């Protein structure tokens, strides 16, 4: 009998879902703000904080992001999001992931949802 691969999971806030998972050299995380009363700036900050926490639990961080998908309830908010994005992602192009931004219908009160894929450099 072969050994089952180890999948790391970060506890989610909703039944049946994880906030992130890791397998081998990769980690995936998704975040929205738990506080839907926040404005866009507040929800983005809360989402980035959650991404940082989940990636840390999975043994990596934002410097190792490979791909990011941003879902905005209102695509007209992209410029406002971009200013926060640049502050969060940093000024080192060596750490900039591929990123796309999509206008989407999100759950009630959710203004932004962010999904990321990151490398886990210490995994083999």
Structure description:
This protein is α+β, with helices and mostly antiparallel strands and 124 residues long. Helix content is 24%, strand content 31%. It is built from two helices and six strands; from the N terminus they run βββαβαββ. It has helices spanning 40-57, 78-89; strands spanning 7-11, 18-23, 26-31, 65-72, 98-103, 112-119. A six-stranded mixed β-sheet has the order 1-2-3-6-4-5, covered by helices on one side. A hairpin with a 2-residue loop joins strand 2 (18-23) and strand 3. Helix 1 runs parallel beside helix 2 (78-89). It is globular. The relative contact order is 0.25. The mean pLDDT is 94.
In short:
This protein is α+β, with helices and mostly antiparallel strands and 124 residues long. 24% of the residues lie in helices and 31% in strands.
How would you summarize the topology of this molecule?
Blueprint: E1 7-11, E2 18-23, E3 26-31, H1 40-57, E4 65-72, H2 78-89, E5 98-103, E6 112-119
Parallel strand pairs: 4-5
Antiparallel strand pairs: 1-2, 2-3, 3-6, 4-6
Helix pairs in contact: 1-2
Mean pLDDT across residues: 94
Strand order of the largest sheet: 1-2-3-6-4-5
Q: Which assembly state applies to the chains in this document?
A: single chain
Q: From the alpha carbons, calculate the radius of gyration and give it in angstroms.
A: 15 Å
- Classify the secondary structure makeup into a structural class: alpha+beta
Overall shape: it is globular
Total helical elements:
2
Count the E strands: 6
Low-confidence stretches: none
The SSE string, one letter per element, is EEEHEHEE
How would a crystallographer describe the biggest sheet?
6 strands, mixed
Q: Helix share of residues?
A: 10-25%
Terminus-to-terminus distance: 22 Å
**Percent strand:** 25-35%
